[in-house]
Each structure stands twice: as C-alpha cells, then as structure tokens.
Amino acid sequence: MRPGRDDALLTDLYQLTMAQAYLEHGLTETAEFEFFVRDLPGERNFLLAAGLEQVLDYLQGLTFDEAALEWLESTGRFSRTLLDWLAGLTFTGDVDAVPEGTAVFADEPLLRVRAPMPLAQLVESRVINLLHFQTLIASKAARIRLAARDRLLVDFGMRRAHGAEAAVLAARAAWIAGFDGTATVAAGRAFGIPIYGTMAHSFIEAHPDEVSAFRNFLVSHPGSGILLIDTWDTERAARRVVELAREDPATKAAIKGVRIDSGDLGDHARRVRRILDEGGLEGVTLFASGNLDEYAVDDLVADQAPVDGLGVGTRLDVASDAPYLDCAYKLQSYAGEPRRKRSEGKATWAGAKQVHREHHAGRMVRDRLTPADEAAPGHALLHPVLRGGEPVNERPGLAAIRDHAAAEVEALPEALRSLEPTIEPYPVLVSERLHEVTREADRLGEAPT
Amino acid sequence: MRPGRDDALLTDLYQLTMAQAYLEHGLTETAEFEFFVRDLPGERNFLLAAGLEQVLDYLQGLTFDEAALEWLESTGRFSRTLLDWLAGLTFTGDVDAVPEGTAVFADEPLLRVRAPMPLAQLVESRVINLLHFQTLIASKAARIRLAARDRLLVDFGMRRAHGAEAAVLAARAAWIAGFDGTATVAAGRAFGIPIYGTMAHSFIEAHPDEVSAFRNFLVSHPGSGILLIDTWDTERAARRVVELAREDPATKAAIKGVRIDSGDLGDHARRVRRILDEGGLEGVTLFASGNLDEYAVDDLVADQAPVDGLGVGTRLDVASDAPYLDCAYKLQSYAGEPRRKRSEGKATWAGAKQVHREHHAGRMVRDRLTPADEAAPGHALLHPVLRGGEPVNERPGLAAIRDHAAAEVEALPEALRSLEPTIEPYPVLVSERLHEVTREADRLGEAPT
Description:
By secondary structure, chain A is α/β, with parallel strands linked by helices. Chain A has two domains: about 250 residues, nicotinate phosphoribosyltransferase (Alpha-Beta Barrel); about 170 residues, TIM Barrel (Alpha-Beta Barrel), CATH 3.20.20.70. Chain A has 17 helices and 19 strands. The first copy, chain A, has a seven-stranded antiparallel sheet with strand order 13-12-1-5-3-17-18. In chain A, strand 12 and strand 13 form a beta hairpin. In chain A, helix 6 runs parallel beside helix 14 and helix 7 crosses helix 8. The longest helix of chain A is centred in the N-terminal third of the chain and has 25 residues. The interface between A and B is large, with 109 and 109 residues.
C-alpha cells in the first residue's frame, strides 16, 4: 500500500453500469454531488474532517490501465461505449472542500464534486471510502487527545486495524488530531509522522532472565530504550531497572523509560514511579498501554496517574465504540437544477451548499447551511480545491493541517469538548433560501403520492 | 491495493528495534510463535479462520527493497548489523496452520511460525493484521449467512470498509463464509468472486422522471436490470415497473429485479411483491438493502418477507457489533524450551500446540488442546503449510475453502448456530501434558514474586 497508488476498479459495480447508461442515453450534463454525514454517532459531539489529501491523490491519478480495461471487457458486462470512455478517462471536474482538520457537524458537506454526470458518479465509492475512514479516526483521536491533556500519545493500532491501508491512514488521521506519533513504520515513511516503539513480551521471554533482556536492549538502543516491565511482576521489574542503572552511569543514561501493559495501569504507575524516583531515576519516563480508549485515558489522567506517555491501539484504529459514520455522497444538482433524495428517513437538503461559521470571543457559536452562492455571516468552510481537474492552490502540509485541527478543537464550545454527549448539539441553522431550493427540487422532481 | 504486493515497512517499529537487539546479542535460535484469539466477543459463538492465503503471500514475498533500506538508514535509528540482515532477508521458516474456513474457538492456534527468533518476531504485526481482519469478517458473515437461510447475499460494504484493502478482503472473507458475491469490482478481479450491482438513487434523480430512468437502464442492461424503487414512493414505483413491462415483451424480459433500500423492508417487500405478481411479473426478483445485519436479516426471513436477495454493507464490512477480536501472536518456545506470557489477565498456554477435534454423528463435539507432538482422539486442525519457506502443498482454491466453511458451519453444534449467545460454550479441553508443559515454562521462566 502506498498512498496515491489507486486501483480504478476499487469501486462498486453499479458505478460502472450506471456510467454506461448515462453515456448511452446522453445524461452527460454537469452534476454536483456532496459528501456529508447524516447523523453523528451518539458518542461524538463533533467530527474532524480528514482524508481530503487521499481523495485528491485518487482523483488526480484516476486512470483505467490496459489490464483493467481488458478485465472489464472479459466480463462481457460492458459496452464498447463504456470501455472507450473509461480508456480516455481522467478527472476533469471541480472540487470544493472543507480543509482537513476542520470541525464539522451533521448535514454539513465536507466535499463537493462538480463534473459531467458519469464522472461525478463513478468516483463515489472510493471518495466515500477515503473520507469516511479518516474522518472516523480523526474524530475518535481528537477525543483521546482531549482526555490525555498534555500526555504523549502514540498510535499502537496497526495489528488490529482493518488491513494495510487502514493502518497507515489511521496513523495519519490520529496525527492530524493531535497524536504525537505512531508505531507504524510505513506511516512514518509515507507521511513523515514521528515513529515510536518499545519492546514486546517475547523479547523478555527469549532471554534467560529479565535483567539480561533489559541489558541487551539498552546496549543496542542506548538512550531510546523503553523497557517493558510487566511480563512477570511489574514492581519487581521496576526494582531491577533501578539496580541495573546503578551498575554504571552509561547504563543509567541509556534508560529512557519503562512501559506497563497490563493490570491496573494507574495503580502500577504510582508504585513504579515511586520505585524509580527512590532509585534516582526521576528522569525515566513512564509509558502505559493496554485496552486504552478516551475513557480509560481520562480516568488515568483525572486520577493524576504519573504516566508520561500512552499507547492507544485497537480502540483508536477501529473506532471501536462507533466503527462507522452514517455518511453519504449525494446528487445535489443535475444540469443546473437542484435534486434531492426523499427516501423514508433519508431526505437531504437540495442543491450545492456552503457552510458559514460564526465565532464569538474565539469560540465557534453557530453554523449556517445555505445554497452555495448565498452570502451569510461568518466565514465559509468549503474552498475551491480543483478546477478542471487542476489544483487551485498548493496543498497544505500535514503539520499545518495538524495545527488547524488543534485550533478547531480549541475553538469548540466547551460542552462539545466533553467526552459525555452534549445535551444541546451545536447549532447548524438552515437558511430560508435553502428551504426554498429544497422545495424547488421537490417540485422539479417527483412528489410522494 | 493488490493482494500479494506488500510493504515490508508495514510493521511496528519495535519489531525492527527488537530484531536489531536479537542479532547483536546472538538470540537467533529457533522460535515458535502462535496466533490465536484469547476470547470470543460475546456476540460470537464461533469464529471462521480466514486470511491464511494473504499471510502466505506476505511471507513468501517478504523483502526489503533498496528504497526501504535507504529510508530506514536515513532515520539514523538502526545499526549496520540490522540493515545488512534486512537486505538479505527472505522468509525461510516453517508455518503450520488451520485451513481457511475452519471453525475455531478461544485459545486455539490458527497459525504457528517456526523460524530464527529475529525473523519469527519481525513478521508479527502484518501476520496479525491479515489474520485478524479476515477472521473477523468471515465470522460475522457466517452469522449473516445462517440468518439469511437460502436467500442470495451480496456484500455492499466497500464504501464504509476501512480503506482499500479492507474492502477487497472483506469481500473475500464474506464469500468464504457463504455470501454469493460482492459489489466490489476489485474483489471480483482479484479473487474471481461474482460481482453484483443495481443502481443508485442519483441515477433516478438525474432523469426527468422515474420511468425514463428505468427505461434507460433496461436498454443499457437488458436482462440484468435491477431497478431501485424507493427514491420517492416505493409502491408507486412498483406499479410503474408493471406498466413499463406491459409496453412490450422485450422490456418485460429486460427486467430482472427491483430493489428496496429504505423504510420497513418487510412491509414494502410484501406490498411490492403483490403489485408485481398481480402485474404478471412473478419472475421479477426482489432485492432488499439498508442497514442490514444478521438480526435484521433474521427478522425479515423469519417473518417470511418475500425477499430473494439481500445486500449487506457497512455492518458486515466493519463487523459493527464487534469490530475487533482479542487476538495475539505469542512466543511459545525459544531454543527448544517452552515459553509463555504471564502478565495479569493475559496468561497463555506454553509451547507449540495442536488442536484435535472430535465429531459424533456429523457434528463436532469437542476439541482438545495439546502439545504439538501429543497424540489425541479426533483429527488435527493445524497442518504443515511452509517448510523452509517453501510451500508443502498446492494452495486450496477459494471455492474449496468456501465449501469447507459451509461444511464446518453445518457441523457446528446446533446451539452455536443460533444468533443468540450460547449458554454453554463449545468445549475446548486442555490435555494434562499441556498443563505440564506450561508448568515447565513457568519453572524455566521467572515466577511472580
């Protein structure tokens, strides 16, 4: 897996069959689609938008190579019309989007695609796949960051992330949301995210005893050795670290930290901290991991457990309490006329939209959803990103995205920064003109009987 | 994403730092590691093993290319010893594994790796990442298959799967567990899984009216047209399908089915079925989708809703009710001596193990966990797969794996085939000799204070 190298066949079959029908019947006028989240999970007071960079990599690199075309033809499902169109395909449309790291809420478009209907439709599946996942993880990670206050936070989730791409992109999304780094080496290489690591229990177990394991690791990694102390008896191991440090100053200097990965983390941390401090190892840091999420992290930090760093794995990388978002990529207009879906329980606002956000005293106070061309107080969240397939501006670097995310979380109303669900959700108003456009769409479309 | 093309850097940093320490201190004797699930989620009565083929692709293709080595060197973290070793690395170890599609339970090894310590350790992160995800999805999909009885089942989950690889491998895992196909085109190409598709609401909305949308799609896809009828009014759309079919026999023949994607699916299905039947469209199939999981499918089928096919998406592809398994890849022996972890709440059985399964009257009745070399009643689940890095046998095809999975689910005790948690879990006995080996490991290792 390398970001930016995409398979054009990573799509739902119906995107191809619909494209064929659009082409064969001349439905090639301009369409506008928007990606948005219908409802926030009950466990989320806000979302952080993420994944735009990978969407742009996908769109700007979109091409059906010879092998893909041959395979499609071999299925016998597709007409010459479709195959010829795919053979010459590149993404020539416009994209407007909310910058990565921006706080967003239900019904607010994160991305708008404007392109000929078959093209705007074709990219749906992968655009959702990319925006959904990183927004999901960044939103989870932001909560863990809030709970951890100023503690060092590292993503440990690669092994239980859902596949290779999820592992690497979860590390990216977590870093955007304020994590300090990841254990996933490929994410370090792909995105320049700082990488962190300690040691596994197997390393201890392969040695005849704990002390020789510690000693060997310190010799190989002087100054970066974080020793895992819970393989057998956590406090005894901490005392051994103290004894080891007394052997000579070089060994002492080589010890960077210790890690606890099981049991009552807060309780062990307090005992271990005392042992280390009494042994003259005040500078040795204490790292905790094991089944952590924002609630467990909050408990540790609120209890003033002396943990300097926290490794959060599975529950971050799969967003275990809310592992998906109810999101969609929906047609908003076709050939200049507003459109919307009215299926039961799934009705949406019609037409291309903009989100206007107002601040007061440094905090965001309300958003207003309007037709894209309506003026409104506050600043607009969606900005032009691609025009005719070409980038409008240079992309922001990952560090700038991360800074933006931190500022966004800082500017949230205080109640939304709590881990508990807010009683009063953030106000997203709907302008009168958007109501009108939506009524217009219903008049143009078909009304329910 | 293409299966079999892996990034050697897709690993946790500590695998590399530990490898360096192993090499520098001569800890290069043979190690045995096993992958197993510690506990089943409360919502699962059994698991279906899956993902072995991708693990073998990874191991057999493992190599650190020039660019990866240069990047590693550029970090300044690694010694010449490690970098030289990585440069010459291929997987030369032994693998024993449970065939894909086999039903497995807590504590039972799905895979054992036997290799020099640095190598056996290095592959941990990606081996877990691959076995965990497909086992997770196959186990979820098997429940949906049980609930659906003989209905056609299609994976619709690509868009909310966690990234590209998750989408493609979820389709594979679901197919193994008895799904009939997937909407994910890349999975069709990669694995030959049958692909299915209908149309989206946007297709309807782009047309001036529903009937012209239906007509255009049928002209472009005669005989495979599944018409989406819930964009505005489901029953009115069904009546329009009947009217359309009356226009001429060719149009009638072109209609393969209809799909309902919102509202009370069972209620709509009954009304729509009646409209179609009364309109002479008894042969037109009815496809339902929208927020389905095994419970919703079971409700529909138990209520005898006239649905022929079901599309299951997000809740399958992220295993939404239990989005991860508590699994591990643990050191079992080093240099011929048994090893185990004894951290609080995470103790395991020591030494290389085998699972023996007994059947009675076509049903599995009990498993027995033993040291790998102990004879026991029943048949052994783990088989040699690689020796010295070379395959022992030809790999089974995906169809054979799928047949095996179906036979395994058929052979489960009846109580385990229920969607409800069993009161009495499947019996996994532990042999007396395995108790002895584990005591031996504790004697050789360190005892808690």
